[in-house]
Amino acid sequence: xxxxxxxxxxxxSSASADEIKKAYRKIAKESHPDLHPxxxxxxxxxxxxxxxxxLLKDAEQKARFxxxxxxxxxxxxxxxxxxxxxxxxxxxxxxxxxPPYEGFGDEEDIFAEFLRQQQGRQRGDGFGGxxxxxxxxDAHYALEVPFIExxxxxxxxxxxxxxxxxxxxxxxxxxxxxTLRLKGKGGPGQGGGAGGDAYVTLSVGAHPVFSRxxxxxxxxxxxxxxxxxxxxxxxxxxxDGPVKVTIPKGATTxxTLRLxxxxxxxxxxxxxxxxxxxxxxxxxxxxDDLARFMEEWRKTHGYDPRKGVTA
Length: 311
What we know:
By secondary structure, the chain is of the alpha+beta class. The protein has four domains: about 5-65, Helix Hairpins; about 85-130, no CATH class; about 140-205, Urease metallochaperone UreE, N-terminal domain (HSP40/DNAj peptide-binding domain), CATH 2.60.260; about 210-300, HSP40/DNAj peptide-binding domain, CATH 2.60.260. The protein is built from nine helices and eleven strands. The chain has helices at about 5-10, 15-30, 40-55, 60-65, 85-90, 105-125, 145-150, 225-230, 290-300, and strands at about 140-145, 155-160, 165-170, 180, 200-205, 210-215, 215-225, 230-235, 245, 255-260, 275-280. β6 and β7 form a beta hairpin.
């Protein structure tokens, strides 16, 4: 497998940030270890895609990779010089040659600085007594969220490769493909460095009754002939539990009822509605009583619903 991040994600080097993100999400959904337990190849694809996305999602890092300043792992490439002294003597280089003890005062100061550096090395503080701090690596996960939990919020857990759990709080109204950032929940930092972040890409599962359009919830409600003719008060499911809805007299298939504020309620946005499309369902068997009634009714009340419908 190529280690070129563009090849890993299957995009061109000219790909936009959105195209890169879309390609990563596709691979994450198809190859995440939680969805393919025991599949080493899928896990390898996911890890490679996560590493590639981590490099290319940052515009500055992407530009540095394109210029050849860093490699696919984000490490600095060695600078090409004819002679190392050219670099060593550059102004600002901390390792350039200087006169012995340049910048110090008398011999007592020099000796104190020497002791300080020695003590720093013994403590493992790094070169010259200065600590080495590095931020932890970011981690990327994929999580499938049931429709109702995505709509109303909740809490789920991801099992990590080492066997530990990562709790993910699902905010109300999250959408398919949305990525949550869990600050400090990625890889551990080194020295005094902060931990990396965890990025969790969500895929929302389908529901047998509801579908979502923006922040509205849509559903189809079957009703009987008599409910359509006479009207009725029936129970209807919503994402927050069942409610009573009035079917008006003379209701017809395709007619839509609206429950205001019963859709998605997400922070910073107005609440969506629930739209209920009515569908008249015939009884499984048309018995003699119903047939006789309709024959008599048609003699005096017949009508043409297809009037005006022409090619």
